[in-house]
Specification:
Blueprint: H1 2-19, H2 23-29, E1 35-40, H3 47-50, E2 58-63, H4 73-85, E3 90-96, H5 100-105, H6 114-117, H7 119-127, H8 129-133, H9 138-158, H10 161-168, E4 174-180, E5 187-189
Length: about 240
């Protein structure tokens, strides 16, 4: 019932303010997240809760099967705002075992419009067919394709002109590939390869949490890797 949601909201707000009377005042004053989370739309994967972060600490984008599609204007707008305006230091591409989108990509394309969206994963499954076929059962193949999809999206993001241009002007942006398990609530870091020329952001200069309010973002050096600036669609200017 909608009334139940509204009542739960009021209870949540009250509990937050009782614990920290200035929480919402600080939250309203400034958005200064360190992380951009790119995850699946699945309702069982709540971004902030999984890593114990309050509102305001993570900028979140979600879509079916956590894709970083270079032609998706919604995705591009989120990444550009997160990197160029909010100056996030780390981007987390997070898939999850048991992903229905990845599972659909392994079956017949009879799911309607979503099959067009899942086309890149289906193509990835064809490319990695030998590796997937060598696994002992469908569950293992599904889990491995979840991991391969995350690594592929990380690679696409590393090649995205928004990220390339940010690094070229000296802004360190780390990109990480994770997979979340619905069975135990734990995240696995896939240790995605770091491209040549990228600089790890290192320890955060911002304070964890909102208790002390947002802290300023320190500039981080990086090695330029482009001689020309490129726009969203990869064309040199």
């Amino acid at each position: 019932m909608i009334e139940d949601l509204l009542a739960a909201n009021r209870a949540w707000s009250k509990a937050k303010q009782e614990k920290d009377p200035k929480f919402f005042l600080r939250l309203a004053a400034q958005q200064s997240p360190e992380y951009l989370w790119i995850g699946c739309s699945d309702s069982r994967v709540p971004a902030n809760d999984i890593v114990g972060r309050d509102p305001g600490e993570m900028f979140v984008h979600r879509n079916v099967a956590n894709l970083c599609t270079p032609s998706d204007l919604n995705f591009l707008s989120v990444v550009q705002y997160a990197v160029d305006v909010l100056k996030v230091r780390r981007i987390l591409v997070v898939g999850h075992y048991g992903c229905g989108g990845v599972l659909a990509s392994l079956g017949e394309p009879n799911n309607g419009l979503v099959d067009h969206w899942l086309g890149p994963i289906r193509a990835l499954a064809v490319e990695k067919k030998a590796e997937l076929d060598a696994l002992p059962d469908p569950n293992a193949r599904h889990d491995r394709l979840v991991e391969l999809n995350v690594l592929h999206q990380v690679a696409l993001l590393n090649d995205n002109p928004i990220i390339i241009n940010a690094r070229a002007r000296g802004q360190a942006v780390g990109i990480h590939g994770w997979v979340y398990s619905l069975k135990n609530g734990l995240v696995t870091d896939l240790h995605a390869p770091i491209p040549v020329g990228a600089v790890d952001p290192g320890p955060s200069p911002r304070k964890v949490g909102l208790e002390a309010g947002p802290a300023p973002v320190a500039a981080a050096p990086a090695t330029p890797i482009l001689s020309k600036k490129r726009n969203l669609f990869g064309r040199s200017k």
